[in-house]
Amino acid sequence: MAKTLEKTRKQIAKKRNGAIEAMHQNSRDSKRLHKAQIRDDRLEKLASNRKKRDRPLIGRVAFFQEFARQHENQALDLEAIQLKINEFVHQYDEEYAEVRSTRRQGRPASTREDLLKMKVEALEKEYRDGFFLPDLTSEKNVQLLDRWDREWSYLPNLAWVKISATGNIKPAKFPPSE
């Protein structure tokens, strides 16, 4: 990951002939080390936030990759894709119904129930407006999707589309803008 601290420590040790422990608290070198440590922590935090934000999209692509593999990596028709999108959109319905039924009457919704409800509503809204996924109607793109190994850097190589509930297909760019 971030290596600023290691590089700074090495430079200071080289300058001081290996005696890095014998520094004054407010010396320039100790301030450099502190600054490098803060930068590494910040970069690490940003990277973890980015991975957390990208995780749902990677899960979505994996879901449709598995679907394409079940159909021998052949181009699919719009009806089959829409059925699979509908399955993806409603994947949380059973869990939401279970959490909702276990709640006693008159009690406020649990945090888990609220999160599931928000997920379901967001997916339904996205499907109405245009569901973002790799283009499964193109044979070439399905072959590229089959080679995907869950790396974010490979995803821009795929062709992307937005498919609405009415059946409209519009080309889209990766990453999705929201």
UniProtKB/TrEMBL annotation:
InterPro entries the UniProt entry points to = Tma16, Tma16_sf
Instruction: Give the UniProt entry's GO cellular component terms.
Output: nucleus
Residue segments, region Disordered: 15-42
What Pfam family does this protein match (any one)? Tma16
- Gene3D superfamilies from the UniProt entry: Translation machinery-associated protein 16-like
* Similarity annotation: Belongs to the TMA16 family.
Its name, as the record gives it, is Translation machinery-associated protein 16
